[in-house]
Write a structure and sequence with these properties.
alpha+beta, four-stranded antiparallel beta sheet, 2 helices, 4 strands
Length: 101
């Protein structure tokens, strides 16, 4: 069977949580055309985008799907002809009330 995602994190991360810079998180307005890989790590790979993780994407989830990047986005992604990249490029940042200060 597949290992539960939470088991990929250490005890300290479970206890203290993980801080992610808000500029590395985007809300996807359409269902993601990207998918998480079934690899042993946290991150999935794409030929143009930084390594990423899609969250809140299952049928049981409410609200928009969210993509978290390992590194900051760079370049002019809106010019890409790749639908997945364009979806990310036109996605919205997280609302300020969702972010800790």
């Amino acid at each position: 069977g597949q290992i539960a995602f939470y088991s990929r994190f250490c005890a300290a991360c479970h206890h203290h949580g993980i801080l992610v810079p808000a500029d590395r998180v985007r809300m996807l307005s359409t269902p993601p055309s990207l998918a998480n890989s079934a690899s042993n790590g946290v991150w999935s790979e794409h030929r143009v985008l930084p390594r990423y993780r899609i969250v809140n994407q299952t049928k049981r989830c409410r609200g928009p799907s969210v993509i978290i990047f390992e590194a900051p986005l760079s370049g002019d992604l809106q010019k890409s002809d790749d639908p997945a990249v364009f979806n990310v490029a036109t996605s919205a940042p997280l609302p300020a009330e969702w972010c800790a200060t």
